């Protein structure tokens, strides 16, 4: 297939490289020269404009910072430039309302489009082991699945347009909540005189067990190797967790829902980010106790 790829940053760079490895012809565009140079080294053809990259393609994939940028890129450079038969796949994490708006515009323009945000960070993007949560019609999903399967280990249909973003922010709200809970439990156990390893051995096989404990333990030297073992470098940045929690709060407001613990998690990550921890892994919130 000929695939346009727009936004080759930390995530998109590795994803585009996996499409090349799967035998596709990748036509890349990014505003940053460094991203384009890296994309060329990975076997992508690069273009001076997104509209050029979209010429004659079977699919367009985007991995961009936010909803405003996604909307502008599709309106200005994809619609009317990609052939009418192309399937459009936005993998960025953006707000549900914009995802639905862009998908509706795409439909008006005659394109099949899905929102397909990912679970998994830069390492999973490089390794081709992302999980995609996909919103869109059954037909658009089927067509997108073939492309997404080259970049991930799971591609799950979440329902109509915007439902991929809804799944992503609900999942990440839960992740933020149980990371804070896990950090708080370890901090309290230690203050009560329990050794962290002993608490892990007990709680990881008891009812407090959760992913933040057994797969991503915030305590250095406990559980599998995680960013905590690397001074909280790499992994999933606090600023990105805060972005997702803000998107979750926005979506909740539009749905007439008032998450109580989710709002508290957003507040705690906002303070942690403001204190200069934006680039540290989100599990570093344990150092706040
Ligand atoms: P990034 O900042 O590294 O990459 C974004 C890229 O988009 C940059 O190279 C930038 O130059 C490019 N860009 C911005 N505006 C553009 C435009 N108008 N046209 C073309 N290119 C443009 O960000 P990232 O970490 O790769 O994240 C991308 C998306 O993936 C975000 O929505 C993020 O929330 C989501 N995400 C990131 C992670 C992660 O761990 N980094 C995990 C899951 C999801």
UniProtKB/TrEMBL annotation:
GO MF, any single term: 3-hydroxyisobutyrate dehydrogenase activity
EC number of this enzyme: 1.1.1.31
Catalysis: reaction(s): 3-hydroxy-2-methylpropanoate + NAD(+) = 2-methyl-3-oxopropanoate + NADH + H(+)
Domain 6-phosphogluconate dehydrogenase NADP-binding per the UniProt entry, residue ranges: 2-159
Species for this entry: Aurantiacibacter arachoides
Domain 3-hydroxyisobutyrate dehydrogenase-like NAD-binding: 162-287
Cross-referenced InterPro entries: 3-OH-isobutyrate_DH-rel_CS, 6-PGluconate_DH-like_C_sf, 6PGD_dom2, 6PGDH_NADP-bd, HIBADH, HIBADH-like_NADP-bd, HIBADH-related, NAD(P)-bd_dom_sf
Keywords, sorted A to Z: Branched-chain amino acid catabolism, NAD, Oxidoreductase
Top-level EC class as recorded in UniProt: oxidoreductase
Protein name (database record): 3-hydroxyisobutyrate dehydrogenase
Pfam families per record: NAD_binding_11 (PF14833), NAD_binding_2 (PF03446)
Stretches that traverse the bilayer: none
Family: Belongs to the HIBADH-related family.
Alphabetical GO biological process terms: L-valine catabolic process
Pathway: Amino-acid degradation; L-valine degradation
């Amino acid at each position: 297939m000929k695939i346009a790829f727009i936004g080759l940053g930390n995530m998109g760079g590795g994803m585009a490289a996996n499409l090349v490895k799967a035998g596709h012809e990748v036509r890349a565009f990014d505003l940053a020269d460094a991203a384009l140079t890296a994309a060329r080294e990975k076997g992508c053809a690069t273009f001076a404009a997104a509209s050029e990259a979209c010429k004659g393609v079977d699919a367009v994939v985007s991995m961009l910072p936010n909803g405003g940028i996604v909307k502008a890129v599709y309106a200005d450079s994809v619609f009317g430039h990609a052939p009418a038969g192309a399937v459009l796949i936005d993998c960025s994490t953006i707000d549900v309302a914009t995802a639905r708006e862009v998908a509706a515009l795409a439909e008006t323009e005659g394109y099949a489009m899905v929102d397909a945000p990912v679970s998994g960070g830069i390492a999973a993007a490089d390794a081709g082991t992302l999980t995609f949560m996909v919103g869109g019609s059954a037909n658009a999903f089927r067509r997108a699945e073939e492309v997404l399967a080259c970049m991930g280990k799971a591609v799950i249909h979440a329902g109509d347009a915007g439902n991929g973003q809804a799944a992503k922010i609900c999942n990440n709200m839960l992740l933020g909540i149980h990371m804070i809970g896990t950090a708080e439990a370890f901090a309290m156990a230690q203050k009560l005189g329990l050794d962290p390893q002993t608490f892990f051995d007990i709680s990881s096989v008891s009812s407090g067990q959760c992913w933040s404990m057994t797969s991503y333990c915030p305590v250095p030297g406990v559980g599998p190797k995680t960013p905590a073992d690397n001074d909280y470098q790499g992994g999933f940045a606090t600023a990105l967790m805060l972005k997702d929690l803000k998107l979750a709060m926005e979506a909740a407001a539009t749905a007439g829902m008032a998450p109580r613990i989710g709002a508290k998690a957003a507040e705690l990550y906002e303070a942690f980010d403001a204190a200069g921890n934006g680039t540290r892994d989100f599990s570093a919130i344990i150092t706040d106790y």
